[in-house]
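ARCHIVE RECORD
Type: protein–small molecule complex
Small molecule: NAP
Source of inputs: curated submission
Record status: active
Notes field left blank by submitter.
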Amino acid sequence: MTEPTQSPTAPPTHLAPPATMRSAFHERYGAPEEVVSVRTVPTPQPAAGEVLVRVRAASVNALDWHYVTGLPMFARPSLGLRRPNRQVPGADASGEVVAVGDGVTRHRIGDRVFGEIDGGGFAEYALAPEDWWLPLPDGVPHEQATTLGVAAETALQGLRDWGGLREGHRVLVAGASGGVGSFAVPLARLLGASHVTAVCSTRNVEAARARGADRVVDYTREDVRDLGERFDVFFDNAGTLSLRDCRRLLVEDGTYVSVTSPKTTWVKPLPRMLAVPLVFAFTRQKAPAFRVASRSTSDQAWLMDQVVAGRLEPLIEQRWSLEDAPDVLRRQGEFHAQGKSVIVP
Ligand SMILES: NC(=O)c1ccc[n+]([C@@H]2O[C@H](COP(=O)([O-])OP(=O)(O)OC[C@H]3O[C@@H](n4cnc5c(N)ncnc54)[C@H](OP(=O)(O)O)[C@@H]3O)[C@@H](O)[C@H]2O)c1
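STRUCTURE (tokenized, with ligand):
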């Protein structure tokens, strides 16, 4: 580890990491308000190739809720069989470099960086390999940068890679609000959609329109199935329609992309996930198997370019302190966020 005081580019002393820090923590699965606490723990030390960052903002994701609750049960092989693999929530973080391990060349102490990490963002300091951190351009607030991880990548990869969205496509976004949905609408536009229909509830109608939807269907008053329209890409972030109805909403060679799954029981998501390829078999319509967005620094860099150019503005719903982490995670589990929530440790 390179000590800040030994560096020729020594940072201001306030950047030097203390021996201990405040961090959210959970050792077992359960309801967030029961298993997550905020405590004082040793500040992690960067090993070779790692970078320690003073976290200035960490966005909240459904992924954090899955790691805390251990649900759905069939995901335990990746979440951790008996105990969570990630004990500190926070998959996205933005802040300043305070210490680097041996061999780190990409970042220097004092650099502003952001990135998607393997948990650890809900803490004053977060550690990750140097490749996972990207430079944060001047003028972009940490609170915006930290939203360009899991949720934005899901919307981008879902529309562009799994949905094959091309110039001129007509796109349906169901669940056009919250973390993923608030990105899906403007990204559909940026990727060239000629027309975007957004489905959301009354309180999100104006935001969906402001973010680029040509038509907004308020699901509390209207039924998207009554529009009598078919779409080239159906980005399903709600999962409320039957798969047969999803098919009927697509043109002959349209693509159905599901990024969500029911949350209510331990195994409930499984039948629908397994049914997708069957329902779409023997048709020209496509429905890629359910998948999880992957960390992509090139996608995050592209998203940041859009922000810097003023073409994309993250929708930040609420800012929270680190001590609020259990409550934030409980609220995330309600799945009625309007935009991104951000923890400011
Ligand atoms: N596959 C992946 O890689 C991946 C990655 C990230 C997230 N996800 C999944 O994507 C989903 C969304 O995550 P998120 O972080 O965006 O959650 P979120 O921020 O809580 O947003 C969920 C949104 O869904 C809307 N919604 C709920 N019921 C709806 C309905 N019947 N019709 C239309 N919209 C509805 C809610 O709006 P209202 O309050 O107005 O209903 C809310 O804005 C979750 O299921 C999550 O697990 C998947």
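CURATOR ANNOTATION: The first strand starts at residue 20 and ends at 25.
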